[in-house]
Amino acid sequence: MWPEVAFYRTEWVRNWYGGYWDLTNAHESDYGGPAVSHCPQRAQLLQEMNEDDFDGYADSLVARGNTYHDLGLLWGARLSSPEGIFASNVNVAPGNGGNVSRHLIFMTDGAMMPSISIQSAYGIEYHDRRVTANGSNHHSRRHTERFLAICEAVKAKGIRLWVIAFATGLTEDLETCSSDDSSFLAEDADELNEAFQEIAKEVGELRIVQ
């Protein structure tokens, strides 16, 4: 992403409220200048972390922009794949010689809500058209299709995919995304804590393998 060189290229651009911005006389400080963009936080590769380190990293995360389930899960998949660009990190052998079970937790606090007007990892969708042919029609559906495809790719790698819907609906798409018996609806902080405790219990359960 390079927001400083991203510009709208028409006089009228549809906004995420369903209306249109008139950019005829727009200046750089207006929406005619660099497109609205929200660069994500720097990702954390897999590593051992104590509680203070984890809390510090989690507290540094700030949610901004629209909700893209497909982009969030895509980076979770990249960071967890034993065959991907971070394979050398993912495949580090455990120090105790034990077997590895792989888990990925996808949590969202909102419904899928991509925008054709802001800059994302797919550029400005209205102009760059990396999601749909005309930059607008059915773009939300296309993002959802990508999301579900990534879900299946994660599970095909032997990774158990947990899904938590926090203070939002546990939709059919989210349930389809998760592995069997691996989805949760948490309506408040107590239920969210219970969901993570249940996941921790399942992940930490000792198993005999042959």
TrEMBL record:
InterPro entries: vWFA_dom_sf. Gene3D superfamilies: von Willebrand factor, type A domain. It comes from the Bacteria. This is VWFA domain-containing protein. It comes from Erythrobacter westpacificensis.
